Amino acid sequence: MVNDNGGLLGRKVKLKILDDQSNADRVVADYEQLLGKDEVDLVFGPFSTRLVVPSARVAEEYGMVFVEPAGAAPEVFEQGFKNLFYAAPAVADDHYNHLADHVVNLPEAQRPKTAAYAAMDDPFAQGTAYGLKEKLEQAGIKTVVNEVYPPNTTDFSSIAAKIKASKADVLVGGSQYQDGVNLIVALQQLDYQPKLAAFSTAPTSPEFAKAIGNKTEGVLSPTGYTQDAPFESNKEFVEKYTKQFGNAPEEDEANAYTTGQVVAAAVEAVGCAEQGECQKKLVKWLRDNEVETVVGPLSWDQAGRPQGAHMIQQWVGGEIKIVLPEDVKEADFVYPKPTW
């Protein structure tokens, strides 16, 4: 879309895409090639925390501004990177801030007393679950189950049994997709009925409802993006993306596009893009300014953390809708969760 508007600084943008095969060694070699051999002017970060950290090290060695769409786990921002910026509203720890505030402020008689956590052994999945865990514990909501499972886990019967036995009021899943579905199905088979159930990522998948028997009512998930967001650039993004691909963009696509918006804003503001001293100017500009994007206005702290919070979605009436915060909600928050 940037080339539809004349490119950057009067030049058409050419993308060079390398396949990192989700391999940390490969991603390092890819960025070494892009920066050292190909001498590209700009780079974007890859997908997932596990790849962002090693690739960011390469970018830092070359002094490059490094805007990335998918490294949200705490460890990304504990490396001391000076040139990194995460292009989303909030880091993993803060994804559930609006939900935590809502739960903590429920009338005492309605407020849950106990919570169970099951998280994949993955920096992002654990970051989202444990960010909420910390806030609920601070509010006096007792942790009664805390399980971490390997990424290749398919049998959740033992974890489900522990959760069922705990009678936890709140269930939090630090999940991707299939693991979240498998855990829910295992809990359904045991007739475990929490008052509140929240899962990272899984509930936003188009296949989620069918996979758990269409018993989605009340299930929660954080999101940094909605297709109906009122931001001017989002309207154009949704329209052009839908026309090109035949369906509306989801959160991953929005974060990737936001990455480009952030870099483009800095380039246009500073007036350069090449390697060398220009990169320092791009970094400084992003440190000092707010950028309007399809996920809203973004600004960052010194470690590259965005200074916002994710919205909270919930399955309501067979559709997933924004329920928090109040000023952007599409439906009322459902609590306690109906049976599944």
Structure report:
By secondary structure, this protein is α/β, with parallel strands linked by helices. It folds into two domains: about 5-85 and about 230-295, Response regulator (Rossmann fold, 3-Layer(aba) Sandwich), CATH 3.40.50.2300; about 95-225 and about 310-330, 3-Layer(aba) Sandwich (Rossmann fold). It has ten helices and twelve strands. Strands 5-4-6-7 form a four-stranded parallel β-sheet, with helices on both faces. Helix 6 links the parallel strand 6 and strand 7. Helix 1 (about 25-35) packs parallel to helix 2, helix 5 crosses helix 6 (about 180-190) and helix 9 (about 250-270) crosses helix 10. The chain is globular, with a radius of gyration of 21 Å. The mean pLDDT is about 95.
Query: How does the major sheet shape up?
Result: 4 strands, parallel
* CATH fold title of the largest domain: Rossmann fold
The CATH superfamily of the largest domain bears the name Response regulator
Sheet with the most strands: spatial strand order: 5-4-6-7
Number of helices: 10
What is the β-strand count?
A: 12
Compact description:
The chain is 36% helix and 16% strand. It has 340 residues and is α/β, with parallel strands linked by helices.
Which key features would you list for this structure?
Rossmann fold; 2 domains; three-stranded parallel beta sheet
